[in-house]
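Protein modeling request. Please complete all fields; requests missing the sequence field cannot be processed.
Requester role: graduate student
Desired output: 3D structure, token encoding
Chains: 1
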Amino acid sequence: MNELIGSLVLLVGAFFLFSAGVGLLRMPDVFTRIQAGTKASTLGNILVLAGLGIHHPDWSLKLLVIAYFVLMTNPLSSHALSRAAHAIRTPMAPSTIVDMLRAEDDAASEKGSP
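Delivered output (114 residues):
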């Protein structure tokens, strides 16, 4: 029974990893690609690690440490990449209506703040 549950969790994780890849191909600009890739791949990685933990219970501590690092590094790295892309004025998709970060940057520069 554990093998079936572990295999199902692995399969769902693989689906989310696949959807992250599709999201990278289908999204219109770098910012939405970063979001699609990060959210789906984080969930996919966690589910794959959980499935492996069900298959191999003796690996649980190692897999938990790996899951912790995935949960800490994926969002931080995507945030850093998107801030860097915004700082170099990477164009957004035409369907983007509001750029709140640009408005905040413009307001700060008008006040004389760096």
